[in-house]
Amino acid sequence: MTELTQAATGSAAQADGKGGHPLWSSRLAFILAASGSAVGLGNIWKFPYITGENGGGAFVLVYLLCIALIGIPIMVAEVMIGRRGGASPINSMRKLASRDNLSRRWIWIGGMGMVASFLILSFYSVIGGWALSYVGNSAGGLFVGSSSDEIGALFGNLLSDPYTLLLWHSVFMVLVIMIVARGVSSGMEKAINILMPVLFVLLLVMVGYAMSTDSFGAGFEFLFSPDFSKLTTEGVLTALGHAFFTLSLGMGVMMAYGSYLPKNVSIVKTAVTVSVVDTAVALLAGLAIFPLVFANGMEAGAGPGLIFQTLPIAFGQMSGGVVFGTLFFVLLVVAAVTSAISLLEPVVEWFEEQKGISRLTGAFIGGGSIWALGILTILSLNVWSDFAPLGMFERFEGKTIFDLLDYVTANLMMPLGGLFIALFVGWFMSKPSAENELSFGSVFAFNCFMFILRYITPAAVLVVFVYNLL
Description:
This protein has 19 helices and no strands. By secondary structure, the chain is mainly α.
């Protein structure tokens, strides 16, 4: 990862509405920002528990294959649209469709991505608030000597208290709004330049601690020794879906971040680097978590409660658990913040362009609206826990507002967004434009990429989409 020339750095200094569209100061800055978006609760929270549920090593192998065949091609396509359009997701799609004399309806790809990021952040920030709460719980020694029932009651009490959830949700959103409001170079880039190294250091400290336990070998074997007898069709499709989700695809984020990418940076090399970093963090999270789980005689397939219910039991029983438990939940908060920044950015960028308002105003309007919508998620966890808005349909029976937001964004909007991005670049966008933007340096390599983007990637995404519907 090399720094860009002085010219690129100079162009970034124009940032945030003063003299032109802002740019990342370097390729490294974009890699850290995009990696920060990709590295989030999906890596530290979701990846370990779905790996545990699906048998370990075989699932990891399929997941890596899905990253290569689905994640990277769509990320390359999405970043390319953003850089070529040089604007918010909606306006980038409008510009590219106009240049190639295509239907204006393509702008709905950008629009759907922005709506998805808006909806996702509304409940993502509530979960980020859980992590903030658990930093205090761990630092205060609440896990020490606690039984599984007591830890479960602690989490249950948090979810049942709308006022406490509102407090932490508000703290989390204010933090995110303040960072995004400061702009690309002064806000997001500076914050990410601090947060991402902190995340890596904390993660390595946690892995180092896991290596000191007698169960590190068991955790390593669980992650990297494939047993295909434990892999089901549902496990394969879960790996496929998570590969898509973890890279922040189909929600306008990579288009927005791509619009700030200097022209002399290789999109392909950068996308591959981001994917490698994201995958490495997920695997390191597994190496940090599974040895602790096994060392305390717990089950790897503990489901979504692995982080907030199972791990606190382990932290409460082990030597140094207060320190390492606190570090772990700080790590979780950092990961959540770097992703949340990216989810707010497409909305703020659109406000700046479309409404002609300042970034500060756009961040407070967009972030405030997301905060308000998040209250519905909070209430669905307690006061409205029995309210299922679409309960008259069998598929949605018992699904709360929180469940519906998660279902609609993860199973419908994001896969559809990724599918249409692949179709747009693969089949409709001018081929010379794509070839010039990507600069593969080899016609054969470009043709291979286009073949994957045209046939393999859409087919795989379509399979996941149909499976989720059925």
